[in-house]
Write a structure and sequence with these properties.
By secondary structure, the chain is an alpha/beta fold. It has helices at residues 15-26, 57-65, 84-92, 103-112, 127-137, 142-156, 171-185, 194-201; strands at residues 3-8, 31-33, 37-38, 53-54, 69-75, 78-83, 96-100, 117-123, 164-167. Helix 1 (15-26) crosses helix 7. The structure holds guanosine-5'-monophosphate. Residues 8, 11, 36, 40, 71, 73, 75-76, 80-82, 100-102, 104-105 line the site of guanosine-5'-monophosphate.
Length: 203
C-alpha cells in the first residue's frame, strides 16, 4: 500500500529538513521525496537534481505543454512543478511519497489522489521566529522576505483544510511527529484497492 503525504507551510518553517530526516529514518525502500522543478534561481549550496531541477521559464513552459507535471503553480513569482513519472513509479512501488508543495499544489493533488492523501501544515510557533529563520538562512533580499511573509500569512489561513498542524518548535519532536503521521498514512481505510483486499481475505 502506498500513500502521499503533502507538506505545506511558509518557506523557512523547516518542512524540507523534517522530511529529509524522516526519509533517512524510514529508508529509501519505503519513502520517496519528490524533487520539484522550478524557475527560481538556486540558493547558495542548492544543487540541481538534489534540491530542485532548476530550469528556465521556457523549459518549464515546454514541460507543461508536454504534460510532464502532475501539478504546477506560480509561487512568489516563480514557477514550481511536481513531475508525474517518478511519483507514479514510487506509488507503484508501495512507497510513502512526500510532496513539499504550496497550498495550490495541495488543492490539485487532493483532487487527483483523494483516497491516499494525508496533509500536514508546517509552521513556526510565531511570525518572529519565521523572520529569524529566514534571516539566518541569509538567502532572502529585503524585498523577497516581504513577499514570503505576505504569502506565509495567506497560506496560514488554509491551515484548517489540512489533516494535521505541525508547529515546528523543537526539530527532533517534529521529526518524531511526521514519522508517526507518515506511518499512519498507510493505514487510511478508503483505499481504492479495498475490494481486492476483502476478496483475498475471504479466500
Ligand atoms: P522555496 O522557493 O522556498 O524552495 O519554495 C517556495 C514554495 O514553493 C514553498 O511553499 C514550497 O512548498 C513550494 N513548492 C516547491 N515545490 C513545489 C511544487 O512542485 N509545486 C507547488 N505547487 N509548490 C511547490
Amino acid at each position: 500500500m502506498s500513500s502521499i503525504v503533502v507538506l505545506s507551510g511558509p518557506s523557512g518553517s523547516g518542512k524540507t529538513s523534517i522530511v529529509k530526516e524522516v526519509c533517512q529514518r524510514l529508508g529509501s525502500e519505503r519513502t520517496y521525496f519528490s524533487i520539484s522543478t522550478t524557475t527560481r534561481p538556486p540558493r547558495d549550496g542548492e544543487q540541481n537534481g538534489v534540491d530542485y531541477y532548476f530550469v528556465s521559464k521556457d523549459e518549464f513552459l515546454e514541460d507543461i505543454a508536454n504534460d510532464e507535471f502532475l501539478e504546477w503553480a506560480e509561487v512568489h513569482g516563480n514557477y514550481y512543478g511536481t513531475s508525474l513519472k517518478p511519483i507514479k513509479q514510487a506509488l507503484q512501488e508501495d512507497k510513502i511519497v512526500f510532496l513539499d508543495i504550496d497550498v495550490q499544489g495541495f488543492d490539485s493533488i487532493k483532487k487527483i489522489y483523494p483516497d491516499i492523501i494525508t496533509s500536514v501544515f508546517v509552521t513556526t510557533p510565531n511570525k518572529e521566529i519565521l523572520i529569524q529563520r529566514l534571516q539566518k538562512r541569509g538567502t532572502e533580499t529585503q524585498e523577497s522576505l516581504k513577499v514570503r511573509l505576505i504569502n506565509a500569512l495567506n497560506e496560514m489561513k488554509r491551515i484548517g483544510d489540512y489533516d494535521y498542524l505541525l508547529i515546528n518548535d523543537v526539530f527532533e519532536e517534529s521529526v518524531e511527529m511526521l514519522e508517526a503521521i507518515a506511518k499512519v498514512s498507510l493505514l487510511k481505510s478508503n483505499k481504492p484497492d479495498l475490494n481486492t483486499f476483502i476478496k483475498e481475505w475471504n479466500k
